[in-house]
Amino acid sequence: MKRRIVKLALATVLALSITSVASAATFKDFDNFYWAKPAVDSLVKDNIISGYKDGTFRPGKQVSRAEFVTMINKAFGKYKENAEANFSDVWKYQWFYQQVASAREANYITGYNGKFLPGKSITRSEAAVMIARVLEFDVAKIDTAQKFVDINEMPPWAVGSISALVDKKVMSGYSDNTFRGAKYITRAEAAVIIEQARLMRSGKLE
């Protein structure tokens, strides 16, 4: 009897595991975001991101700065239980407090004049800087960024990071030779950037 119970329990766990892994392929709203599917599948499998209760992933939804650092913390093991945020607009009762605090302690965010702006949608430039810091890239060279026709629209503090991430194939520009650093990233784009960064860290990015 005990053996039967154990077998049933193991079968249940296995079934749940298969369902969890397969669930990445069941989002109802991925028709126009096929290019992000492999990255989303990988991150969902590793519990870094998830969908919504209605069965959607909402790939075109913009990502807030707080949400992006949460993804980074999960992807790269940056979360720390007792970190301090020290931002005037981040309070301990907010769901993202410890995530932002962990990012601050890991030194990949600095904020704006004492504020983090957690609810603000994150731009491609801001995302590039955060990821470059996490991966500890050399951001001294700006040659690659200078090849984009919108180089003058990039904030000076992001040019080196953008150059490094494009060089390493973690991020890329658009077909019109722009980078669009001020553009807010979507959940689909965030998934691709973070997955590319993970592949780079693991040495699997070709």
UniProtKB/TrEMBL annotation:
The keyword Lipoprotein does not apply. Keywords: Signal. Residues 1-24 form the signal peptide. It comes from the Bacteria. The keyword Signal applies. Residues 23-86, 87-144, 145-206 form the SLH domain. PANTHER family: OUTER MEMBRANE PROTEIN ALPHA-RELATED, S-LAYER PROTEIN _ PEPTIDOGLYCAN ENDO-BETA-N-ACETYLGLUCOSAMINIDASE. This is SLH domain-containing protein. It comes from Aneurinibacillus danicus. The lineage of its organism: Bacteria, Bacillati, Bacillota, Bacilli, Bacillales.
